[in-house]
Every structure is written in C-alpha cells, then in structure tokens.
Amino acid sequence: MASKDDYGDEDGVRLLAQLEVILDQDPLIDEVGFVHPSQLASFHVLEGQDTTESLVEDVQTSIAGERNLVITSEGLPFESVGVKSNLLLVDEGNTESNRGPSYDRSVFWCGDHKLAICIPALRPLFKAAKSAYLFSYRQYRILGDLSQNEDCSPYLCESGSSSETLREHRSKMDLQSVEAALLKHSKVVAILSCDYASAWNSRKQVISQKTIKEVYGAELQLSALVLSYAPKSEQAWSYRRWLIRLIINVSAKSKEPLMILERESDFLERIAEKSRMNYRAWRHRCWLVNHMSTRQVLTELLRTKRWAQLHVGDNCCFHYRRCLLLHLCRSKSSTSTENKVFSTEDFYGNFQNDTMEDWDEPFMIWKALWIHRRFIFHQLIQQPRSRYSITSSTLDSDISPKKEAPTDCYSYEQLHAFLDEEFELIDMCLNVADTGFEDTTQQKEYAAMYKMWMIMQLQGINGSKELLERVEKERCNLKAMLEKVCPQRAVVWEGLFCLNQCSYVEPH
Amino acid sequence: MGELEIEKHTQFIMSVEKKKDFDSMVMEHLRMSGAYWGLTTLDLMGKLDAVNREEVVSWVLQCQHDCGFSGNVGHDPHILYTLSAIQILALLDKLDTIDADKISAYIVGLQQEDGSFAGDEWGEIDTRFSYCAVCCLSILHRLDKIDVGKAISYVASCKNFDGGFGCTPGGESHAGQIFCCVSAFAISGALTHVDRDLLGWWLCERQVKSGGLNGRPEKLADVCYSWWVLSSLTIIERVHWIDKEKLKTFILDCQDKEHGGISDRPDDAVDVFHTFFGIAGLSLLEYPGLKPIDPAYALPVHVVDRLFFGQPH
Fold first, then answer.
1. Are the Cβ atoms of B170 and A134 closer than 8 angstroms?
2. Cβ–Cβ below 8 Å for A126 and B25
3. Phi and psi of A98, rounded to 5°?
C-alpha cells in the first residue's frame, strides 16, 4: 500500500482497531516511535530482506540455545528479543496473512517488541481513540452509578442461590466489558497524547479496584512505553509513582517493593543515558530513596559513583547522590539495627569520596563537580558547633573547656587541615596555565566561586578566634582574586561580601 | 536583535487558536493554561481588545466542574488549570461569574496534613501546587481558608543547601520551582524564609555567556527562564546581579520576526508558552511599549491593583 498524507475519520476508526490488536497481541512492546512514512517503509524493507530460510535457522538456533524462551499460544518458541516476533508465525509460504496481526503496513510497523506509527496517521488515530475513549468512559460512569443505585428491589437471579439482584448481576458483566473497552481505548490515548491526564486518571479508577499483581506490572509497562518516546511526560511519571505507592500498600510485607525498587533503578539508569539531565526522571529516582533500605541506598551510591564518573557534567546524578547521602545522615541518627551496619567512618568516608579523591585534574572543568564539592563542604562544617571550640592549647580563655569530642565530629585540627587542602586545590586551579581555551577560564571561575562559597559558609559558623581570623583574612583576599578571574560578577560579590570593607589587618 | 515585533506576535497568538494539526491536538488538555499565556501576553502588548471576551469567559465556565477547573471541556479538574482559569477571569475582570467559595473549598480540600498541596484527587504533591493554591486564593481574597502557616512551612522544607527550592523536600533546585516557592512566600508575606543572598547568587549563576538564562546548572539557556529567574530575582531585590542588557538581547533574538512568536532559543520553533515568558521577561526588564507585570501573580500590574486596591480613578 502506498503511504498517504491524508487520512479521513473512517481511516482513523479502522487504524484504531488495528493498533489495539497489535497492542493486545504483544504486551511486551517496550518502545514506540512516530516516524516519517519513508522511515516506516525502510523498516518494512529491512524486514523483507530476511528470507524464510534464515528465519527457520534462527528459530532452530534459539531452540537449541539456552536463552529465555517465550512460548506463544501457537506453541512456537521464540526469543523475547533479537528476532522479529510476529514473523515467526510464518509458515514456508511467508504470506501476509501469516504475519501475525494484519495491519496497514503504510501506517504501522511492529517487530522486536518495537512499534512504529507513521506521522500522517496520528491525527485521525488520535481523533478516533479519543472519541472511543470518551464513549467508554461515559459508559463506565453510568454503570458505576447504576451499581451504586440502591433503588432496585432485590430478587433472586437465575441461578437461584445468590441474593444479588439481576440488575446487579447484569451490571457486573457489563462493567467488565466496559472496563476492558475503557482500558483498551485509554491506552491508545495515553500513548498518542502522553499528558492527556484524564486518560491516565480513568485507568487509575479501574486499576485501583484490582489487586492482581500482573495488572500492576502491565501498567508499569505502559508507563515505560510512553516514556520510551516521551521521557519528560509528567503524567507517565506521576502514574508510575501512583502505581508504586499502590503496590507498596498492597504488598507491604512481601519482597515485592524491594524488587520493584531494583527494577526501577535499572529502568531509570537507562532513561538517564537516553535523556540527559531529565528533571522528572531524576525527581522520580530521588522519590524512590524514601522507600529504600540503607543497604539499597549504599548500593545506589556505589552504582552512581561509576555512572557519575562517566557523565561528569550531569548535575542531576550528583544531586541524586546528595539525596542518598542525606538519607544516610538521617538514618544514622535513627536506632534501627540495619543502620548500624553503616559506621561513622563509612559515613565520612562516603562524603570524602565525593570530594573527588579519585577524580583527576581534567574533571575540574565540570561545574557539576564543583557544585557537589560545595555541598560536601557545607555538610562537613554543619556539624555541632561546639566541636570547633575543642580544648587545645591555644583555646581562647572565655570559651569553657569542652569534654572530649565524640569520634564522629570534625576536630579543630582536622578542620584546619581540611581548609588547607581546599585552599591548595583552589590555588592550583587558579594558577593553571592559560591554554586559550574556554575550559581554563571556566575552571578558574569555578574555583573562585568555590572559594567564595567556602568563605560564605565559614562566616556563618561559631568558631575560635583563630578560625575567624583566618576566614576574615581569606575574605579580604577575595577581591583581588575575583577582580582577576571574574570581574563581570563584581556586583554580586560586592553584594555578598561587602568587600570594600575589610577589617583584617596582618599582624606584624 | 533589534525591536520587539508586537504586531507579529499578536497575529501569531490569534492564529494558534485555529490550528487543528496533531501537535495542537495533543496540547488540548492544557488549553486553559495556553489561553492564560496568550491572553496575558496580548494584554501586556496592549492588544487584548483583539479577543472576544464573552466567548472566552463562556468557554472558561464550561470547564468548571463541581469544584475546580479542567484544562479543557470534558477533561478532569486540576489545581494548575484552576489557577489559569482564575487568572484569566481576573484579567478579563469577570471574577463575579464564579462562586469563589466553591473554588476555595476545592483548593482547601487539596491541602495535606503536612501543609503541602495535591494537584488533584490522585495525590501528586509538588510545590507548584502550593503556589497555585496560594495565588488562586489570594486573588479570590480567601487565603485565610487554608492553613497558611503549614503551607508555608512545607514550602520552606523544600529549601536546599544552595538556597534554591525543588518540587518536594530534597528535590533538585530548579528555577521554575524556585519561582513558585518564592512567589508563594511573597504572596503570603513570608519572604523571611528565603536567604536572599544565597538564592540570589544561585539565580544569577543561571546567566550564561549568550546572556540567556538556564534553569539549572549545566543546562542550555531557555527563554522561559527569563521569566522564572527574573521574577524571582525581582521579588528578592537582586535583579541587578544579572546583566539585563544581555538578557534583553537574548530574548529579542528568540523572536520569529517573520511569522511572529518567540521560541526557547534563537532559530527554534515558536510556541505560545515561550512567547508569553519572553514578553513577560521583557516587561520585567521594563522594555518600552509593554505594560508592567507583577512578578508574583504573573498578571499585569493594573489587574493586581484592581484586585487589591479597586478600580483606578
């Protein structure tokens, strides 16, 4: 069939029926794309290049092999990936009628659990789907109202044993078929118009009455399908959260929630690869942290460390790590035995690992890393202020001696040593040779901003006289550094630090 | 570069209505917000008379459910579209066509135990919805119907180490969310929850070399952030921390001077969303020929004045 650009309403109805059959026959479809007619044609051409012979060989190999097989209702085994599923229903003749569900090849291509729809057909398809959806939803509402209607007088139904009314009985059967229609049509609407909230809401109304786990799995699959082409779809993400909350509520005591979280983590990593710094995806990932065990949080930290090293500019990943670290901070203060697995050393170790011990100099051009460093610094100096006035020989007389600091605090000496390291790093970055590339300019600016950050944070803490003097000295040196590195931000640092007022005087 | 093409943008907005292609169809669920963007832009440019007000109001009222408003006729209600509807009616001075108590009751019903707001009956929480609630009720002069203290403390709990705000506690700082949180504070008289220096610094770091603003670190500049970052900076009195001239130039570069409309960045496809935010941004930058816009209510100042100070003499 030649491709058309002009489909009418009748075409829409016909195509809707075909699409619904395709979706029904392959519940494993995990990717959908809207393509140009020429692209669609090329999928069919590539498919046609597989001869029947090589297909039979593939089937035999896969039977002999040990990979996961899925048995169809026809009894033919095929791999769940790698072989075009609907083609395996062919016989030697390789006729069109044996190619699985028959559909308009100028509009659809389906194989390998992937679905392509040609762009010119989308409008009539959507019109038909929306119309069918609205009709089935109206029926669903009517039946829902009917079943709640208490006016009908009770009498025995045909079986003679049940006390439900005939009307209720009939209504239950109708409800099932109307529900099925509603789910079928709303699915297409959700796929074609991913943020059509009402379609997703209708599904919530139906699904919230179900308790079979396979149903939830299928719904997560639908959300994933939509996210395959619309990874920023707010409704698809929101639906996913709604489902996970439902699953957790329904199966709280089982291992189901933990398994869900693990699968979500894999899924989200794939999305993160495809859709860079996707706010909604990472927001979802941060939301999952609330439901994670400490062990899972630690696993995630390990996993994202590697990922972050490969995607250093991805600020979202670092933010996610911050969520994980903060979650550990909160768990640390709780008394559950599980959390005792994670010792104080581990806690600071994790923080310090994130200050890039493993990161080499080339990474210093990435802003996301500097921002992460700001967070680490902020957290490390947020510890109880009393420890900065820990007994030492230089202690100011009006600060009363404190008892020995608990082991999980940063001591006075440690703090100064830490500051030394940080200032050294900053100086190293500020003094890097100009290559003429933008990278080195940016690196200097990021280092300068980090120093500003440090001073700003340190100004807020209650420290010893020595520390405050050190901070004031650094603050006064800021102006010269900032004038050199980022003069365009003068109005900002003047606003932040009142750098024209400098009370520090070098001791003679 | 150069001038703002007011006539072209007016024509573009009027034409959006008539589009029936697939891309327009899949936006129909948010038509209420689209209408708010289009109408407010027209008013800022002094071109609201091009629109049939009665027709607009009649359509808006068709979207009213027992409680809130939906994005279009036959769609489910949501707090986002309830705000857009109220903003439209405020713009057109037709707030007397609705039952303010009913709408307030809907919004009050969406407030959770912890002070946060759900978007609708299905329970998704987001600080955007807190903003919608506070802004809407303020316009209806019924802010006292919710627990404002709890609403504010929930928003405050979404503050991050960098001074910014996310969608939920611990959510990544994002200029759009920051606008919602800061505006919610402003409307409720609770700006003390904002560390103006820290947040101002985060916001001014959004300006990139081209002069445009991004919404988060390492992202590309986008015209819509000209609104969200700029209005936040205006509210916390730190607008002078960015280079306004460069931003102005960036926004003007995003215009389609031939067909009208503004896009997210130069030479991309235009849409009414970015047209609104570009014009609103220019208004905050006091571009000549545009009416001033209120940074918290995102409505022209004369509309906000009318709401709170009565008709001007």
1. no
2. yes
3. -95, 5
Residue B308 Cα, gap to closest chain A Cα (Å) = 33
Report, as an integer, the average pLDDT of A14-31. Answer: 95
For residue A382, give every residue at least 6 positions away whose Cβ sits within 8 Å of its Cβ, in sequence order, or none.
none
Query: What would the two tokens of residue A409 be?
Result: 């605090």
The chain A residue lying nearest B173, using CA atoms, is A319
User: What is residue A203's three-state secondary structure?
Assistant: helix
Backbone angles phi, psi at A439, to 5 degrees: -50, -50
**CA atoms of A404 and B155, how far apart (whole Å):** 39
A232 contact B CB<8A? no
> What is the b/e burial string over A293-314, where b = at least 16 CB atoms within 10 angstroms of the residue's CB?
ebebbbebbeebeeebeebbbb
Q: Count CB neighbours of A134 within 10 A.
A: 17
Counting residues of chain B whose pLDDT is more than 90, the rounded percentage is 94
ipTM of the complex: 0.96
A277/B216 touch (CB, cutoff 8 Å), yes or no: yes
> Please, are residues B82 and B91 in contact by the beta-carbon 8 Å criterion?
no
Chain B touched by A326 (CB under 8 Å): yes
Please, are residues A284 and A301 in contact by the beta-carbon 8 Å criterion? no
Measured CA to CA, the distance from residue B301 to residue B227 in angstroms comes to 15
Predicted local distance difference test score (pLDDT) of residue B223: 97
Contact assignment for A378 to B198 by CB distance below 8 Å:
no
Distance from CA of A283 to the nearest CA of B (A): 6
Give the C-alpha separation, B149 to B237, whole Å.
Answer: 24
Under 8 Å between Cβ of A21 and A101: yes
Chain A closest CA to B161's CA: distance in Å? 7
| H or E segment and range at residue B57 | helix B53-62
Which of A127, A367, A492 lies closest to B218 in CB terms? A367
The CA R_g of chain A, rounded to the nearest whole Å, is 32
For chain A, what percent of residues have pLDDT higher than 90?
A: 40
B254-282 per-position pLDDT tens digit: 999 999 999 999 999 999 999 999 999 99
pLDDT at B226 over 90: no
Q: Mean per-residue pLDDT for A254-271?
A: 89
Provide DSSP, B245-299: HHHHHHHHHTB-TTT--EESSTTS-EEHHHHHHHHHHHHHTT-TTS--B-TTT-S
How many Cβ atoms sit within 10 Å of the Cβ of residue A27?
13
Give the containing element (helix H, strand E) for A187. helix A166-192
Mean pLDDT of A349-374: 68
Report which DSSP code applies to A118: E
Tens-place pLDDT, residues A481-492: 888 888 888 889
Q: How far is CA A332 from CA A303, A323, A340, A448, B37, in A?
A: 21, 14, 8, 34, 47
pLDDT digits (tens, 9 = 90+) for A101-121: 689 999 999 999 999 999 999
Chain B residue whose CA is closest to A365 = B218
Q: Which residues 251-310 in chain B show a CB within 8 A of chain A?
A: none
Does residue B66 belong to the interface with chain A, where contact is any CB pair within 8 Å?
A: no
- A495, B200: Cβ pair inside 8 Å? yes
- The answer to whether the beta carbons of residues B213 and B230 sit under 8 Å apart is yes
